[in-house]
Fold this protein.
Amino acid sequence: MKLYSVIEPTATKVPILISSPHSGTEFPKEVAAMLTDDAITNPDDTDWFIDKLYSFASEMGITMITANYNRWVIDLNRDPDSKPLYDDGRVITGLVPTTDFNGNPLYKDATPDEAEIQRRVEAYYKPYHRKVAALLEDLKEEFGYAILFDAHSIRQMVPGIQKAPFPELILGDNDETSAAPQVIQAALSALEASDYEVTHNFPFKGGYITRSFGKPSQNIHALQLEMAKVNYMNESETAYSEENAEALQPTLQKVFSNLIATKL
């Protein structure tokens, strides 16, 4: 199985990489054999259609990498040592999730043991992270800096994380430490100029990808954009909505236009 796909820019390249670690839908055979039928046919925690939503990126000179396998195989946005990202009481699925966001079991019988977890780290987790690192280093070498934009989506209601609906757009930068102030402001100003509800670092401030790759002192800046799926999917959050997506995309394009114009 091809672990990830890299979509190269079709216009003049700019120093931005979009990462989509949670939009994959494939399961390796040996993993699928362990999972419940419902987990395989309805992997509900998937960031559905993120690659389609951001399909304009290549025409803006932006490189994109998307994972092809599902986050329930291994979660690329978790700490490889399974250190929790939040300590506020929310449900936090693990490096190799054994339940979905609402606590429903994913495995038929026994859950993966430590040896199986480490096998998946080597087979699926490390290759993606190595490729992201290499793409960022290539951009930094060419332009003097690189910006990583980690793209995510989530159901608007996930009671296991919080009881209230999520905001429509949530910009995360690990409490303003994963990117330079001008990078953060470039993205935030574009989001806040839209008609969408926007929050900054709450209730999400960036996962492991944002926190580990974002090193402004080394000229690599990282942002995470989490969004409610209803922004670009239908009301039931089960199908892509061309109408909703086309309404949202100008805001996303403005974010990237601002980032491209930012001088570092």
